[in-house]
Sequence to fold (346 residues):
Amino acid sequence: MKLKINDGEFVIETLIIMVLLSFMLIIGLAVAHIRNLFSVVILTGIFSLIGAVIYVVMDAVDVAFTEAAVGAGVSTVLLLSTLILVDSKEKVTPGLNSFVAFILVTLTGGVLIFGTIDMPKFGDFKAPIHNHVTPRYLTKSSKEIGIPNVVTSVLASYRGYDTLGETFVIFTAAIGVLAIIGRGRRKPEQAIKHAKGETFDDT
Amino acid sequence: MIPNLQHKTILRVVSKFLIPFILLFALYVQWHGDYGPGGGFQAGVIFASGFILYTLIFGVTRVRKVIPSWVTRLTLALGVLIYSGVGIATLIRGGNFLDYNVLSENAIQGQHIGILLVEFGVGVTVFSAMVTIFITFAGQNRN
Fold:
């Protein structure tokens, strides 16, 4: 993303986004550095919350809402409940070549930044994404759908197939969790027997 | 397993005070999604967060008395069935799949009905999925 200060009124907004993005950078570095997984989970929650604030500054309240609820809320709680099951101390694998990893990460980051160079400027109304179907949604949705929130009309009506697919993804995720760890709990001795293959009783 | 926090008075009282408002806010987000930010997805997550808070304070056994596992499993499938059902209904009424215009005599009204039902389906499935995933995780390791 390229942030250029052209207009006076966007200076404050750009400044806020810059500060928030640098917070995110610091948190990212901290997450990579800290070995205590509890702190890492909390930091990722804060990372998502700052992301949500940035979306609010960019006037994408629906996205901000989802980011705050899912990224900062539910993911954090899920990761915390995972931490209850596993050790909260990250094991450091010795003999890992951190220099090669650093070069790889720097290269990937460089390529990604290179990819953004010819991207349209942030908020550019001439950007291709704003000239494909967006004008139709914005101008016709009040006549065709008749509800004030265009995001909802795009999500539920124009792009109803995609949302149906997303709902099935959520459904599948829950089914997957149920299938893997959601079965009736075994008594420990039964579980040991089961692991040894002495019983095929699943209950 | 989640540590038992229900003996901490402040947590217990504050959470009991907050949960109704969280659920109410989720319902607002659900039904007001046509007019403001929000919709089924966010509402489902917020509604689930009320139950997750309850689980954190009172434990898995208590929350399973409030909402048994057969209920969440049923509603999990119910949400996607409502969504797909709207699609089937539009097919039966002679339109394309998920073409809400045919749901009513008036195309705009049909869109309103369709979006409301579809968002409700999304909300129900998201809520059940979040609660199911969380409680399944939290209920592990109990012998």
Q: What stands out?
A: Chain B has a mean pLDDT of 88.
